[in-house]
Amino acid sequence: VFTENLAYDLTIHSFLSAVRSYPELEFIVQKNEETSPLWSGLLKAKDMPENMVFLHDESKGTGKEVAEGWPTDPTFVATSKKIVGFAGVSYFSHLIR
C-alpha cells in the first residue's frame, strides 16, 4: 500500500478541512503502521476537531491476533487527548468474555 502522500501538509489540511465541515459526523482514523503518515501528521495539527477519533488496529481489519498485545504508545495517547478505541484480537482476548 502506497501511503507516503498521506504525510503531505496539503493532505493533512484537506482531511482536517473535511472533518471540520461535517461536525455532525464522527471521523475514525485507523492507527496502524500503514497509516502512520496520516495519524502522525494529524497529531502535529493544532486544534484537532472534536469529531475525530482514533482506532488502534494493527491487524488492519483482518481480525488477526496482534502478538504485541494492545498498543502502548504513550506519545500517541498523551498527545491526542482524544477518545481512542482498539480493534482486532489480542492475546488478552481470552480473558474478556
Protein model, in words:
The structure is a single chain. With 97 residues, the protein is α/β, with parallel strands linked by helices. Helices cover 30% and strands 18% of the residues. It has 3 helices and 5 strands; from the N terminus they run αβαββαββ. It has helices at residues 9-21, 36-44, 74-80; strands spanning 27-31, 52-56, 65-66, 84-86, 89-90. The strands form 2 sheets. Strands 1-2-4 form a 3-stranded parallel β-sheet, with no helix packed on it. The chain has a two-stranded parallel sheet with strand order 3-5. The longest helix is centred in the N-terminal third of the chain and has 13 residues, at 9-21. The radius of gyration is 14 Å and the shape is globular. 9% of the residues are buried. The model is unreliable at 91-97 (pLDDT under 50).
What are its keywords?
two-stranded parallel ribbon; 5 strands; 97 residues; disordered C terminus; 30% helix; three-stranded parallel beta sheet; alpha/beta; single chain
Describe the secondary-structure layout.
Blueprint (H helix, E strand, L loop, with lengths): L8 H13 L5 E5 L4 H9 L7 E5 L8 E2 L7 H7 L3 E3 L2 E2 L7
Parallel strand pairs: 1-2, 2-4, 3-5
Task: Count the DSSP helices.
Answer: 3
Q: Approximately how much helix is present in the residues?
A: 25-40%
Low-confidence stretches: 91-97
Strand line-up across the major sheet: 1-2-4
Distance between the termini: 35 Å
Structural category: alpha/beta
- Write down the secondary-structure element order: HEHEEHEE
The total of beta strands comes to: 5
What is the 3D form?
globular
Largest sheet composition: 3 strands, parallel
Write down the overall mean pLDDT.
75
Radius of gyration: 14 Å
Our estimate of the beta-strand percent is 15-25%
